[in-house]
Design goal:
2 strands; two-stranded antiparallel sheet; mainly alpha; binds zinc ion; about 150 residues
């Protein structure tokens, strides 16, 4: 990604995350991980947050198509960082998806992929009945047969 695209890219993600009227620690953490992923510095992030704080910013797709899709994915990522897609965040995401011309099918796919990305890293879990460690995603405990 070009350096000059990084600030608007981060601003897009930040704009969506503040659309629900708050910028909570989960969202701040999500934005910072996006910053690292695109290789931007603290300074770029600070500038992006300043732009958003000044207000009046409209979402602006930047970079190549793949960057735009990635940006959309990150916007979904930050929106879901606090566990929910707020009703004020959803229209922002939909309008961005429309602006970069991705299909409803692709958007739905991005949404479910992002939800997976946010799932806590699945390690062994404990059976609620017998407390033995069982593989994640188990429906029944292999030791006692208890339903998970
Ligand atoms: Zn069990």
């Amino acid at each position: 990604m070009r350096k000059e695209d990084m600030i608007p890219y981060l601003a897009n993600a930040a704009l969506v995350s503040v659309a629900d009227g708050e910028f909570n620690p989960d969202e701040a953490k999500a934005i910072d991980s996006i910053r690292k992923e695109i290789g931007a510095g603290e300074q770029e992030l600070k500038e992006a947050l300043n732009i958003v704080a000044r207000g009046g910013l409209k979402l602006m797709p930047v970079g190549r198509f793949s960057d735009k899709v990635r940006n959309l994915e990150d916007m979904i990522f930050v929106s879901l960082a606090d566990g929910k897609l707020d009703k004020k965040q959803k229209p922002e995401i939909l309008s961005f998806a429309k602006a970069i011309k991705i299909s409803q099918t692709q958007l739905t796919q991005l949404l479910s992929e992002t939800k997976l990305r946010l799932k806590p890293q699945s390690g062994p879990i404990k059976c609620p009945s017998c407390s033995k460690e069982i593989p994640p995603e188990s429906k029944f405990c292999p030791f006692c047969g208890g339903k998970i």
